[in-house]
Write a structure and sequence with these properties.
By secondary structure, the chain is mainly α. The chain contains 6 helices and no strands.
Length: about 100
């Protein structure tokens, strides 16, 4: 993620949208202003602790990192979960058939 211009651009877009300065974000999230500055300049990564602080403050982390809305991400997970469920049902069916064969 270090220096990814798209991630930085989305982060800056939200800063403008929320009308927050680097100093205000730093104070609000309890990080140094120089750390925020180094993220924006592409010199530092978004740390896990910083992403967690943003999330707890209501920032859309999925959108910052991927450009996808939270709803899109949720739909992806729902689709994956449905596919996994289908595979589990199929696996269960085959296990039952094998158990019957073993009992014979």
């Amino acid at each position: 993620m270090k220096g990814d211009p798209e991630i930085i651009k989305r982060f800056q877009h939200l800063m403008r949208q929320k009308n927050l300065t680097q100093t205000e974000i730093a104070e609000r999230l309890r990080f140094s202003r120089t750390y925020i500055s180094s993220i924006i300049a592409g010199r530092s990564d978004f740390s896990g602790a910083f992403l967690k602080a943003l999330a707890f403050d209501g920032w859309p982390i999925t959108w910052i990192l991927t450009g996808q809305s939270e709803d899109q991400s949720t739909e992806d997970w729902k689709t994956r979960a449905e596919r996994a469920e289908e595979k589990l049902k199929l696996l269960d069916y085959h296990v039952q058939r094998l158990e019957k064969l073993v009992k014979k």
